[in-house]
Amino acid sequence: MKDLEYPFDGNYIMKKKRSLKKALLADGSDRIHKKIAVLGGSTTHDIIAVLELFLLNFGIEPEFYESEYGQYWQDAMFPTDELLSFSPDIIFIHTSNRNILDYPEIGDTAPEVNAKLEKVFSNFQTMWKKLSETFNCPIIQNNFEMPFFRLMGNRDGVDIHGRLRFIHRLNERFADHASNCETAGESFFINDINYLSACYGLDEWSDPQAWHMYKYALCIPAIPCLSYNVANIIKSIYGKNKKGLVLDLDNTLWGGVVGDDGVDGIEIGQETSLGQVYSEFQNYVKMQKDIGVILAVDSKNEHENAIAGLNHPDGALRPDDFVSIKANWEPKSENFKSIAKDLSLLPESLVFVDDNPAEREIVTAQLPGVSAPALDAPEHYIRYIDHGGYFEVTSLSEDDKKRNEMYMANRKRTELLESFADYGEYLTSLEMEAQIGPFDKMYFPRIAQLTNKSNQFNLTTRRYSQDDIEKAAEDEGNITLCGRLKDKFGDNGIVSLAIGNIRGEVRDELHIVLWLMSCRVLKRDMEFAMMDELVAAALENGISSIFGYYYPTAKNKMVKDFYLLQGFEKISEDADGNLTFRLDISGGYIRKNKYIKIIR
Amino acid sequence: MTREEVFEKLNAVFRDVFEDESITVNDDTTADDIEDWDSLEHINLVNAVEQEFGIKFNMGQIVSMKNVGEMVNIIIEKLG
Predict the structure, then answer these.
(1) How high is the mean pLDDT of chain B?
(2) Which end of chain B is more exposed for a tag (fewer CB within 10 A), N or C?
(3) Which domain holds residue A212?
């Protein structure tokens, strides 16, 4: 919904929150359901109301638990029955510098100040620990905004007695904690209100009126900005980040029109102020690529002019930085579709970056769900794309950093495919190797991430948290498999998952409750390699029949006949189109994979 | 802006905030007359009114407003 896309009008959202919610709920889109406990150190009413809107817009239907006013610590340490039975999927702790009760005083000795710091921090740390033990779910914790006054002026940020210095030190401790959690494999995320309030304007953000009248720790118009930031973290946790930028060229990546002005005539580089702006933007886009954002070009241009522009000596980006370059005279929405198709991605997982409002209108009208930030002037491009939070990084895996390489390798595979007359010969030439085995602790984060972001090649669309995955892996009544696929062009990482439950009176049935595969390895026979391994594991466990399930969603039609292709027979179909299949393996099983070498 | 014009704009704000097209406010309207107008929604309402008229109430004014009529008086004074 446009009203909820950055840069949004926060006051409009606040005013219209009721009608916006109605409209979102009526749009008929599929959403995952998540339970969010909001533990506040101040009023959270409208923060939750607006957070709900942003989450609905991100495809997440939230259900909230809201602590009584200011009861964040009590709720965490001594959870009420209501909170216990609510059993949150995510906990958001909304605290602020108003919740720091014991600041240093000017007469305190250095050890006393340190003791105060330790006390504030350990209060939080104890609470986080307790919450993790009780609920074992991701925690989102505000850091602290800077104080709205500086008793000692500039010295306040230097002197250990200054509140500003105290808050800086606390924030540093919070950040350390977050990075330690990441190392330990725990989900703990900082909601950086220190940065947010600075962007918003600290004086306005800290409006004492909002605190003293309503006990809001921020001014009312800033609420959407806070809620949006939290929503970005949540959508990232559930794998709903965007995956790439589809960029226009003329007046987007450089000033001027390369077809008219020539490569020498476009503005990029240090010669002019506008050229500098575009240079800075290209550098920013290149940094996005380094964190795993896929780049593509969708431009109305002659292909050779586009390439020439991208080879401009002062530009930071090069043609090789893009996994796809569509420079032609087709409608941009068509190019956009084919870019998504080539990458096996849904169009809505890509962001359209174009200076021309008319082009943005066409693309977003033709391809619902595509975000196209309303770029006005080139000096705002970075801010609009950055603060839009499309690629909010809650975890940065090796996979992420290598993503562009993987897609680039895919391009090479496609080129190779075109040189073979026979598809089997092509598969042989890829020299594929798969590592397939039970869920391994090392891969738990990636496995959980995959269950949350795979939509198309996903038979049951069941979502798992990292904790759920750990439980599933440890359960002896389960057979779990994760598969990693390599070939001569590169490593695709973990690309396929399966979980089977052993059931039945004599424990001879295996029910496949999760089966998914990343679309980046479609048509490589990986699904047959996975089934071979699953059946082998099933036979070892004395299983005689395997049951497969297909639950239709708006996005997983491509796997409707998956089990038939695997040799299963359909045994039932209900009114909602849910299908059940069965494969009898008591009489043996013929392995189907011919092209992938299996490493166990 | 005349008193009538202020009322007209204010009425639109009330309808937006409470998502109820049947609302018509007058001098004597208070929180008791509108179902969803509780203390938490009051905050949102005040903010929406401030945005609509491009003004900012101070704390004393917010605390002292007894009904919509008094709110309109303050708005007119601020716009003055």
Answers:
(1) 92
(2) C
(3) 2-237
